[in-house]
Each structure stands twice: as C-alpha cells, then as structure tokens.
Write a structure and sequence with these properties.
The complex is a heterodimer of chains A (about 325) and B (about 280).
Chain A: H1 2-29, H2 34-39, H3 46-55, H4 62-74, H5 96-131, H6 136-149, H7 153-167, H8 180-209, H9 212-219, H10 224-246, H11 248-261, H12 267-276, H13 280-308
Chain B: H1 5-15, H2 19-36, H3 73-109, H4 111-126, H5 129-138, H6 145-156, H7 158-172, H8 175-182, H9 187-195, H10 200-223, H11 235-242, H12 254-277
Helix pairs in contact in B: 1-12, 2-3, 2-12, 3-4, 3-6, 3-7, 3-10, 4-7, 5-6, 7-10, 8-9, 10-11, 10-12, 11-12
The chains are: A mainly alpha (about 325), B mainly alpha (about 280).
Chain lengths: ~325, ~280
C-alpha cells in the first residue's frame, strides 16, 4: 500500500510540474514585454515599470523564474488578478487565493449537490437499465439517457430557466435563496454527467452481473435484489466514482455556464467576467489551480478503487 | 463483452441499414445542407437588418422573429449551422489525424516515444478543456473559425490518441497479425492493411461522440466571449445575446434547439457505432 501511494503521488506531482513547465515556458516564448503590454497603448511610468518587473522577477533567469513560480504555487501563493486600476498606480489586484476563498463556498453549494445527484441518479438508473435491459423500462432509461446527453448545458440551463422560473413562476430566475432555487441550477449542472454515468453503469453492471461471484451468491440463495444493489454495486462503485472524476472538466464548464445564466456569484461567474475583462492573470491562475484539483481528485478516485475493489490492490486486477 | 472481429464486419453491415444509424445520419445531412446553402431552406440575407423591428416576435414570413439588431432570426439561425459544423468537423478531422499518427506511432514504437506521448497526454487530460481554451483564446485577437479550430485541436487531441494507441496495441498482439508478420509484412503494411481497418468502428464511434463535444464546446466558448467574434454568425453568439433578454423575447432561445438537435444527432450516431463492436441490444 505504501508503494502504491508514493508512486501515485509522484505521478500526480510530475503532471503538475509538467503543466507548470508547459504554461510557463509557453508564455515566456511569447514575444513582447508583458509589463508594457499591460499599459498599452500608453508608456508606463519608469518607476512603476521597474517595480512590476521586480515584483514578477522578470530580470531573473528563466529557470529561476520557473522555480519561484513552482514554489509559490505549492505554498498557496497563486498569484493576483490584474489590477483594475493599473494606470492609477495599483501594482496588483486581489490575490487569487482570496478570490477563491470568497467565491468558492458559493460554488461548492452547487458542486456538492450536483456530484451527489450524478452519482446516485447515474448509478441507480444505470443499474435499472442493466437489470431490465430486455424490457420496456430498461430500454426507456437507456434511450432517455442517450437523448438527454444531446442537450448541451447552455441549452438546458436556458430552457429550464425560461420554462420553470419564468413561464410557470415556480422559483426565482436568479441567485441562490432557499432550497427551491437550487433545483434548476443543480439539474442543469448534473444532467450530462448523469447520462454518461447511466450509459457506463449499464454496461458495467451487465458485465459484473455475469461474473462467477454473482453465480456463487445466487446459488447461496441470496435474494437477487440484494445481489444487485449491495454486492454488484459495491464492486462497481469505484469505477462510477472514477467516471465522475474523469468528467470534472464537464463539471467546471457547467459551473461557468450555470452560474452565468442564473447569476450566481461563485467562481464560475467570476471566470465569465474574467474572460470579458481579459483578466489573463486570473484565468491562468484558476486554470492551474483547477488542474491541481483535477490531479488530486484523480488520486482520490484511485484511492477509492483501492479501498472498494480489492482486486486493484495486487496491481493486475485493473480493467 | 466485445464482439470478435468477424462479428464486427457483420454487425457493421447490419448497422448501416438500421434506423438507429440512418436517422441521425439523415439529420446530419439536413444540417450539413443548411450549413452549405441556407438559401435552400428559404433563408434570406443575414445582414438585412432593421432596428425598427428589434426583438419583434415571430410573424408571417419571419417564423422565428427578429434579433436585437432586427435581423430575420430564421435566416440567422440557419446560417449559424455553418460555423458550428465547420469548427466541429475540422477539429474532429485534425484530432483524428493526430490521434491516428501519434497513437499508432506510440503503440508500434513503444519505448521512450510511448512514454513521452503518455506523459504529455496525461498532463493535457488533467487540464479542464473549456477553461484552458478560454485562456488560450484570450491571447489571440480577431478570432475566426481557424483560430478556434487550432485552439480546440491543440488542447483536445489526447483522448483520440489514447484510443488509437489502445486499439493498435490490442490488435497488434492478435494471431492474425502475427501470421501476417511471419509472412514478411512490414510495420507500415501491418498497420494499414491489418490493424487500422479493424479499429475503424471504435474510432468512428469516438469521432462521432467527439463531434458532439466539439459542437457544444464551440457554442459554449463563443457564448463566454472567448470563441468566434462578431460579425460571425454563431449559435453561441445568439445565445449570449439572449442573456437577460429571453424573458422579453423567448424566441431568442431557438438556437438552443438547433444546437441540441446537432449535438443529439452525433450522440445517437456515436451510440449506434459503439454497438457494432460491443455486443449490445
């Protein structure tokens, strides 16, 4: 187990360092002076110009800059957003860490219920589709999942908002105030990955239910319902979690769209404004930080495999 | 459970005659015709606009009403199919070519080439696509179809490469490939004649599914202000305009319907192709 953890953490760290290298190296290769570009088309005050060059260590050698950058990322200094009044003499905007701390909880209030809905609805409906695959109910779940997979989050969020908030007036159109206002944003955020998980769980469950240990359990006289929902589910759960983690990119995209359309002031909405303000510093910092989260989440998913599915522990049971 | 290779050929023949395949293909044909020539469907001049009818609802001769600038929305929406499909098809063709070349090379050569490709794809697969694309695109001024295609391709080639690599590796060790090798077939011949043709259905299924993702990605990127720019005609731009206005003018959301129909067509096509190589009823 010790070896597994060390190897996995080393792989994750290597991925992050390589990403930092790609980003940092790529940006260093861009032509032009980044500080002058900030002030374009005006010329910066020489004193402010030098202060900014010092602040970003631009006079150091590239490798030194890169190492400082790595150190800062790992110690929680995630950089600053562009100063909104740089021409007024402000040298830096708000630290990205502060921004994440301020807007993060709002986004978490959408992310956590969405992931829970994805996992429960996806696993349950996918299992139903697998168990009743020849029958009308199973087919209906399958076809519905494929059809709903075709609705991009942008279309879904708009149509739900227009239909239920505006036409029917059941909930307010924007913001998060009280639990009914969570319903539409959470559905919009979960649908795509839920459908993916239904399709995945359907074929996964079918394969698991054909395995010898299921036959053993059946011959021992354990009820079918118990076999499917306890024994088969336990073996499959780790792979379901892996699928959800593999779709974090989709979750982040959905977060940006849903918070924008429903005017919810979280990280996604912030990214939307950052794109419009051309706040590249904030965008880049958020990109690197969220990649860090993806890498950590992948490690946790592997750990879940390790705990839930004993076959992976020998290293040869992986599918 | 996988079909064997022999069953795949039969399943492939059956597929191309089945409604699960023909229905999405027919829809894609209609959308493609729309993209090539919107006039066929009665679209007028997309730049014939008049502010006096800004946001007016549907009326006779103008079934979808008018947009903010008072342009005929039916014409605009039909024209939107062009940039949507152009971006998606180009991205899929390019990532497909990269995937087949790099994936095959990685699988056939092994060694450090394989390790390097694996490590690079590992990094890119951890990066959230839309966020990365939004960042890269803000570095580019004057974004047209070409810029969006290059941006999306550079960031999204790893999944196809991984798929091709896995397929080639698994077919590479089959007996029939060993037989061909024993008969003196070179690596290129093995790949072209014996390996890639048998990987065609998984690659097609993935390509169709990825087209769906690319269509949605273009619309979302453009909606966020990091994709195509005015005066381009794109469903993403139309949906951005609908923000805060969809209450007063719900017809502004019609592009969402076309967007969903396009994505759904490719999702269904992908599912149909998948059933050829995975025994599934």
């Amino acid at each position: 187990m010790g070896g597994f953890v060390v190897r996995r953490v080393a792989r994750g760290a290597l991925t992050l360092v390589l990403l930092a290298l790609l980003v940092h190296g790529g940006l260093a290769l861009l032509p032009g002076d980044p500080i002058r570009a900030l002030f374009a088309p005006l010329d910066p005050d020489p004193e402010i110009y030098q202060a900014l060059r010092d602040q970003y260590h631009l006079d150091e050698r590239w490798i030194v800059q890169f190492l400082i950058y790595l150190k800062d990322m790992f110690t929680g200094d995630w950089g600053h957003s562009f100063p909104t009044n740089i021409r007024g003499g402000a040298l830096r905007g708000a630290p990205v860490m502060d921004i994440v701390k301020a807007a993060g909880p709002t986004s978490l209030r959408l992310i956590v219920p969405s992931v829970v809905v994805q996992l429960i609805a996806g696993a349950a409906l996918g299992t139903i589709a697998a168990v009743y695959r020849g029958r009308i109910g199973g087919r209906a779940v399958y076809v519905a999942a494929v059809a709903l997979l075709g609705i991009p989050v942008i279309a879904l969020a708009y149509s739900l908002q227009t239909t239920f908030a505006w036409k029917l007036g059941w909930v307010t159109m924007t913001g998060l105030t009280g639990w009914p206002t969570y319903v539409l944003p959470v559905i919009s955020m979960s649908l795509t990955t839920t459908c993916l998980l239904i399709l995945f769980a359907r074929s996964r469950m079918r394969d698991v239910l054909r395995q010898p240990f299921i036959k053993t359990a059946t011959s021992l006289g354990i009820r079918k319902r118990r076999i499917v929902w306890i024994h088969a589910m336990k073996v499959s759960m780790a792979s379901f979690i892996t699928l959800i983690v593999a779709n974090i990119g989709q979750l982040i995209t959905s977060l940006i769209i849903v918070e924008t359309i429903y005017s919810i002031p979280g990280l996604g909405h912030l990214l939307y404004t950052a794109i419009y303000d051309r706040d590249r510093a904030l965008l880049l910092a958020m990109l690197v930080v969220s990649t860090g989260f993806v890498v950590v989440a992948n490690m946790l998913a592997d750990a879940a495999h390790f705990v839930l599915d004993p076959r992976t522990r020998t290293g040869d049971g992986q599918d | 459970m996988d079909h064997g290779l022999e069953e795949r050929v039969g399943a492939g023949r059956r597929l191309v005659r089945s409604p699960a395949f023909l229905a999405p293909v027919a829809l894609i044909f209609v959308l493609a015709a729309m993209a090539v020539s919107p006039e066929l469907f009665g679209a007028g001049d997309p730049f014939d606009c008049s502010l006096s009818r800004s946001l007016d609802g549907p009326r006779s001769g103008h079934p979808f009403g008018f947009d903010l600038q008072g342009c005929d929305y039916y014409t605009r929406v039909l024209n939107g199919a062009r940039s949507s499909l152009a971006v998606a098809v180009l991205v899929v063709v390019l990532t497909g070519l990269i995937g087949i070349v790099v994936g095959s090379l990685s699988a056939m050569r092994g060694g450090w080439v394989d390790a390097a490709v694996n490590q690079l794809t590992d990094v890119l697969l951890s990066v959230p696509l839309l966020l990365a694309a939004a960042f890269v695109m803000t570095l580019v001024g004057d974004r047209g179809v070409l810029e969006v295609v290059v941006g999306l391709t550079v960031l999204s080639w790893p999944p196809m490469t991984r798929l091709v690599r896995a397929e080639v590796r698994s077919l590479h060790s089959r007996e029939y490939v060993d037989a061909a090798r024993a008969l003196g077939a070179g690596k290129m011949r093995l790949l072209r004649r014996h390996i890639l043709p048998n990987a065609i259905w998984p690659i097609l299924a993935f390509a169709a599914g990825f087209t769906a993702i690319a269509v949605a990605a273009e619309a979302i990127l453009t909606f966020l202000g990091a994709g195509l720019e005015l005066p381009a005609i794109s469903w993403g731009l139309m949906l951005a305009q609908a923000r805060f206005r969809s209450v007063a003018a719900p017809h502004l959301l019609i592009p969402a319907l076309f967007l969903s129909a396009t994505v759904a067509a490719f999702v269904f096509l992908s599912e149909a192709c998948r059933r050829v190589f995975e025994a599934d009823d």
